[in-house]
Write a structure and sequence with these properties.
heterodimer, A: alpha/beta, 5-stranded antiparallel β-sheet, B: alpha/beta
Chain lengths: 311, 255
């Protein structure tokens, strides 16, 4: 559904926020986009939404959504096919308007149905996101709803645009663990029932493990590894993916030191010659000063000088 | 060293209105010296109210708190000030808890000035930073020039300024990336060993707290629903709620 090859985003012609992102998201799947802060996850999402900041330059080998070229900015599909579910639902909703009015604003923009029918549509969408008593929610202000309910309203709004591709940017980070798990279960159900496709931006490996079919790991704006979730998490190939997993608190027995990854990601101004991760990589070799080869194995790929058997 | 018995905190809605629901309902806990107690619960479970009551930032309705053998709730004025030196606090977001206006040296000197500590402030600040894994160059910087992990190290250094015996950590890693979180957890582990600190570690992330705590307290709606040694709670949670908190993501990630 979404095909991205060699995506590059440069801001003010010297800040390389996205250096080389490859993504392939088939219809009806959830694809995870993993990485630390500053790795270009959100910027990749914004590029797909056509919401890049002023002064940003976009380049890519391939950047298509079901055959539509996203490179020519005019063809933005945001609000028709692609919608955003952001991290903080309280910030995504207007605090001074009732939920019903905010749902109606979306529905009115996207259809020419009469007002009473739109009300019924809005209630049906809220019900589809698992909100009990949709009529009460329609009459409520956002602050009267819990965080989980607010996020469900935001998801209902995304569905109201008619979009079948959601970009979910850390949709559960602001929520409690159990509420977050319910929202993830809802997204999973929407994929199964409505054939939605979701790009899930997250830094939480548990979220990836819970809902994603496939995932890409971003480092310094480069896709360093991509593959089916289970293979990626159980047998990571790229040293950065390994380091991220080893740093999880349940990766080591209680009380033992965690394998913390020292150092920092290269700043966006830095020009990267060889492997971007080499300065922090425990397995770095002299050859890492040259660009790493793309290695493939079944349905996965990674960028590393190490052979699979050594990695 | 810290003992809480049947603590109840109720917030009043107004001056004359009847007391509302209990935010903390009859909570008891014991924290021996050198131990780490993890307090887990979701928003609204009462963990922040419990912490604030222990810091005496909110009025306690009933119950008792003993800190180092002293009846902490009866302390007033100067004796309360001195007793409070024994508690260091680290908040969730270092960029909110560190003044953007002051240099790191000034931030670390502030508690020393307030307590009238007769030491060379700059030298003490530098040694605190070193203990928290930061070089002395950071003394002249300001919080906004630091990464999240570095800023949280400064916040921990500040909490240690007055040599407390108890460190209260409120979600100290939830604003950080996993790799940085691991660094901070390692640092806390080292400090615990080197300084024999006791810690109260509040979080909604059961996995983080399970790694660092000796015992656990699970809170829901103001009450303790489960408590005990970490291994026992993790291996055989008796409450469905604890299982729900723990099970997330686990089945797919670990064989």
């Amino acid at each position: 559904m979404l095909e991205v090859r060699g995506l590059q985003v440069v801001i003010n012609s010297d800040l390389q926020v996205v250096r080389k992102v490859d993504l392939s998201v088939p219809k009806g799947t959830i694809h995870g986009l993993i990485g630390e802060s500053g790795c270009g996850k959100t910027m990749t999402g914004m590029a797909i939404l056509g919401l890049l900041p002023k002064g940003a330059g976009l380049q890519a080998g391939t950047f298509t959504f079901e055959g539509t070229d996203l490179l020519s900015g005019a063809a933005t599909l945001r609000g028709r096919r692609i919608a955003l579910v952001s991290q903080d639902p309280a910030a995504a909703l207007n605090p001074v308007l009732r939920v019903g009015r905010q749902m109606d604003d979306v529905l009115r923009t996207h259809s020419n149905v009469a007002k009473p029918a739109r009300r019924a549509q809005a209630a049906a969408l809220l019900a589809a996101t698992g909100l009990p008593d949709p009529d009460r929610v329609l009459n409520a202000y956002p602050h009267q709803l819990s965080g989980g309910m607010q996020q469900r309203v935001v998801i209902a709004q995304a569905l109201a645009t008619g979009a079948d591709f959601l970009i979910a940017d850390e949709p559960t980070t602001a929520l409690d663990v159990t509420v977050g798990a319910q929202v993830l279960a809802l997204l999973r159900r929407l994929v199964a029932q409505r054939g939605l496709t979701i790009l899930m931006i997250t830094h939480d490996m548990d979220v990836v493990a819970e809902v994603c079919d496939r995932a890409s790991v971003l480092y310094a704006g480069i896709t360093v590894e991509e593959g089916p979730t289970e293979a990626l998490l159980r047998a990571p190939r790229h040293p950065y993916t390994k380091a991220l997993l080893a740093a999880l608190p349940d990766a080591r027995p209680k009380g033992q030191r965690l394998a913390a990854l020292e150092g920092a990601i290269p700043p966006p101004r830095q020009i990267i010659q060889g492997c971007a991760f080499a300065p922090r990589c425990p397995m770095a070799m002299p050859v890492c000063a040259t660009p790493p080869p793309r290695r493939t194995e079944g349905e996965r790929f990674w960028l590393c000088h190490l052979e699979a058997r050594d990695a | 060293m810290l003992e809480v018995r049947d603590l109840v905190v109720r917030y009043r809605r107004g001056f004359l209105s009847a007391p509302g629901l209990a935010a903390v309902n009859s909570v008891s806990l014991t924290l021996p010296l050198g131990h780490t107690l993890g307090i887990v619960g979701e928003s609204g479970s009462g963990k922040s109210s419990l912490l604030r009551a222990i810091l005496r930032l909110v009025p306690v309705t009933s119950g008792a708190i003993r800190l180092n053998g002293q009846d902490f709730l009866s302390l007033k004025g100067p004796s309360l000030r001195v007793a409070r030196h024994g508690i260091g606090v680290v908040a969730q977001n270092p960029f909110l808890s560190l003044s953007p206006r002051l240099t790191i040296a000034e931030i670390l000197a502030e508690p020393m000035q307030a307590a009238g500590l007769a030491v060379n402030h700059r030298a003490r600040a530098a040694s605190l930073l070193a203990q928290c894994g930061l070089p002395a160059e950071f003394l002249t910087r300001r919080a906004r020039e630091l990464s999240g992990g570095q800023a949280q190290r400064v916040a921990i250094a500040r909490a240690l300024t007055l040599s407390p015996s108890l460190l209260v950590l409120d979600e100290p890693t939830s604003a950080l990336d996993v790799s940085v979180q691991a660094q901070i957890l390692n640092l806390l582990q080292d400090l615990k060993q080197d300084l024999g600190l006791s810690m109260l570690f509040v979080t909604h992330n059961l996995k983080v707290v399970a790694h660092i705590s000796d015992s656990l307290l699970v809170m829901q709606r103001g009450e303790v629903v489960e408590s005990g040694p970490t291994d026992q709670v993790m291996q055989a949670p008796t409450k469905a709620y604890t299982q729900e908190l723990m099970g997330f993501g686990r089945h797919a990630l670990r064989p």
